[in-house]
Amino acid sequence: MPDPDVLRARCRALALLDAILDADAPTHSFVSDWREGIDLAFMDNGSGDQYAVVFDPAGVFLYGFDHESDATPWREWPRAHWPGLLDGLPPSLAHYPAAPEFQFEDRTSSTMTP
């Protein structure tokens, strides 16, 4: 994984290129100051796969969802993260998995915008 500053620059570049190449339906987006002092990069391919990268001063939180993965929470009810997936998550970032933007039900990229 690249340094957070390098990752942020790459995410911004992807969002900019995507906006230039397909302004009507970009796949990659970047929201500066999504929350106070926190940036958000996200991708939604429109086919059920998404990821988000939260650039928090406390660290970087990566959240990915692949609807065809063996680890997808959509295979079972009630929905839950793969066992052990969040083990070792630093306390300073532990609130992100519970944030409404990263919940399984009714989750769309539009919930990640300001």
Task: Give a structural overview.
The protein has 114 residues and is an alpha+beta fold. It is built from 1 helix and 4 strands; from the N terminus they run H-E-E-E-E. It has one helix at 4-21; strands at residues 28-35, 38-44, 50-56, 59-65. The chain has a 4-stranded antiparallel β-sheet. A hairpin with a 5-residue loop joins strand 2 (38-44) and strand 3 (50-56). The two termini are 27 Å apart. Mean pLDDT is 82; it is low at 106-114.
Structure keywords:
single chain; 4 strands; 114 residues; four-stranded antiparallel beta sheet; alpha+beta
Return residue spans where pLDDT drops below 50 for at least 5 consecutive residues: 106-114
**How would you spell out the order of helices and strands?**
HEEEE
Biggest sheet features: 4 strands, antiparallel
Shape: globular
* Helix proportion range: 10-25%
Termini separation (Å)? Answer: 27 Å
List the strand order in the largest sheet: 1-2-3-4
Helix/strand-derived category reads alpha+beta
- Mean pLDDT score: 82
The radius of gyration over CA amounts to: 14 Å
